[in-house]
Design brief:
Helices cover 30% and strands 30% of the residues. By secondary structure, the protein is of the alpha/beta class. The strands form 2 sheets. The chain has a 7-stranded mixed β-sheet with strand order 3-2-1-4-5-9-8, with helices on both faces. It is globular and about 40 Å long. The model has no long low-confidence stretch (mean pLDDT 90).
């Protein structure tokens, strides 16, 4: 499959710290991180896909004694994450680079988070990305995922002064896609969220807590 990321990384390079200003309240991410912390022994390896600035997810996981590895497409976001979470290890990479046989092998993880990372992919790539997550997890690994509920595919939107392309699913279809790629959904929550910026519309955020099926 030909991968087109034109403009996506550049947009987030430009957004930088403004992302955390626009999204100051991240209760869903914090609650999911606390679930992982309560479920994993100290020293477990956790991969934060689309780590952004490292706040709050990577920072909270690292503070709890977990070994955090972060990946983001944006060099600028990776630089911020390294500054914000000095005990973490962060890489500029595409999730497609981590697929079985891909150019980046980061090893296996006890848990993976993907908070709003997969919505940056066209729908055709999302099942492939989920299967990559399944590959990266240890046999009894945990997966915390969030998406914005929306029936769109590679749709251009204004976002914090830039333009990005996003995809989404309605709730039932999202569950079906996740379960079809090897995960058991153990809990689901949702939040109606109004970002603190005028060019990002209110949204419904869906958070899934999942276990890896063999």
């Amino acid at each position: 499959m030909e991968i087109d990321r034109a403009g996506q990384a550049e947009a987030f390079d430009a957004i930088g710290d403004h992302y955390d200003e626009a999204f100051p309240h991240k209760e869903g991410q914090i609650a999911s991180a606390e679930w992982l912390i309560a479920s994993l022994p100290a020293g477990s390896r956790v991969l934060d896909l689309g780590c952004g600035t490292g706040v709050p997810t990577a920072r909270r996981l690292a503070q709890a004694g977990l070994r955090v590895v972060g990946v983001d497409l944006s060099d600028g976001m990776v630089a911020l994450a390294r500054r914000n979470v000095p005990t973490g290890v962060f890489h500029q990479a595409d999730i497609a680079d981590l697929r079985p046989g891909g150019p980046r092998d980061l090893g296996r993880f006890d848990a993976v988070t993907a908070f709003f990372a997969l919505l940056m992919l066209p729908r055709a790539e999302i099942p492939l990305a989920l299967r990559t997550v399944h590959h990266l997890l240890s046999p009894h690994g945990l997966f915390a995922l969030s998406m914005v509920e929306a029936d769109v595919d590679d749709f251009s939107i204004p976002f914090i002064g830039r333009t990005i392309r996003v995809s989404g699913y309605l709730r039932e279809e999202l569950r079906e896609v996740v379960e079809a790629t090897g995960f058991e959904i153990v809990a689901e929550t949702s939040y109606t969220y109004a970002p603190a910026t005028v060019d990002v519309q209110p949204e419904v955020q869906i958070f899934l807590r999942c276990g890896r099926r063999a």
